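Dear colleague,

Thank you for sharing your sequence with our group. We've completed the structure prediction you requested, and as agreed, I am returning the results in plain text so they can be pasted directly into your records. Please verify that the sequence below matches your submission; if there's any discrepancy, let me know and we will rerun it promptly.
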Amino acid sequence: MTQIQLSDTQAVILSAACARDDRIVFPVTTTLKGGAINAVLGSLLKKGLVEEIPAMSEATVWRHGDDDTPLTLRATPAACAALGIESDVAPAGADGAPEGEPATGMAEEAETPPNDARGAPARKTREGTKQQALITMLKRPEGASIAEISAEFGWANHTIRGAIAGALKKKLGLDVTSEKVEGRGRVYKLDNAA
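Please find the predicted structure tokens below.
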């Protein structure tokens, strides 16, 4: 499978969208000047990482269709996969599936995952993904620093912090701890029982 290359801006936009229950791209969490945001979103659309769907709110309108229907952008399962995030739960209103119902074709049927602190089903990780590799690094007795994670994956510091806070803590419900370590900086650890 070909690895999709993402710019930092694309990764930030997709991370924010994949963290939302409905996976809607708007509001965009990054500031770009001029038409740059349209260029970035257009590129994501061409790569199949976002798709146009009818907008449910005026605040999320991307453009108006030929019949003047307001359209927005939603991250596709491919976007979540490119970021190493897997979700068995369909976004609200996706493909006619009720919110919280398994989305067709996204993953094999498995045991019902435990609920997270909000009562929503906890997400799972697939083997062989960057997310799983990050979890493995954090489970080491010595944990992993931002510099070590950056060296391993080539991610920017803000992407690493976002992955830990968003994907691991918020979405997977993992208890990631951090502490300042002399000579290493901030070190993140995950209890091996998780």
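Summary note from our side: The CA atoms of residues 54 and 71 lie 4 Å apart.

Kind regards,
the structure core
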